[in-house]
Amino acid sequence: MSELRSGNETLLHGPRVVLAEDSVLLREGIAALLEKHGCVIVGQASNPDELLLKVRSYEPDVAIIDVRMPPTHTDEGLRAAHEIQAHYPEVGVLVLSQYVEPTYAVELLAEDAAGVGYLLKDRVNDVVEFVSAVRRVADGGTAFDPRVVSELVGRRNREGVLDLLAARELEVLALMAEGRSNQAISNQLYMSARALERHVTSIFTKLRLPPDSEHNRRVLAVLAFLHD
What we know:
8 strands; about 15% strand; disordered N terminus; Arc Repressor Mutant, subunit A; two-stranded antiparallel sheet; alpha/beta; single chain
């Protein structure tokens, strides 16, 4: 993150963003919101072809993509997100959807959960949380809408690997899947940092995720959770 000083003022420049949304009003509104909170909009697109061109040209930190875009308004945005993941793995992908579609979230995680997010569009109204999600995905973290995570929990295979986890550990892992930090999880579950760390360590142990310098155990645990 670069830093620019002007007099006594310090301005922090956030992630570079390409924004793909066919509704001009919504696109401009999201762009203005993000710029107000320090993000840098390097490109805007109204269809998948424009999106891929802007990603290729400007190499953003994150692409924010509407699931339904022209020409058919079905899953063009999702397919463009897959293409970005395949050809520009350093670019985070944050998909926005009007409806809860858990299968789309799972599709995004076909290879890796790093730098991936899936939010409902009404989440944009929670400005602080939305900007935080954009920054997390740009930094290689995750950001999944709580309603999508809840749906996935409800559909979880009872014979899956997550049956090894206690109820409290599942709560912790669900919040990790939303992309929340340890501090945020501690606050929400009203537990101490030390107690949370014990739960997180237990989760990693039960999911057989030993320390590994080449893999982020937190990301792998989220991947196991959303795929189960």
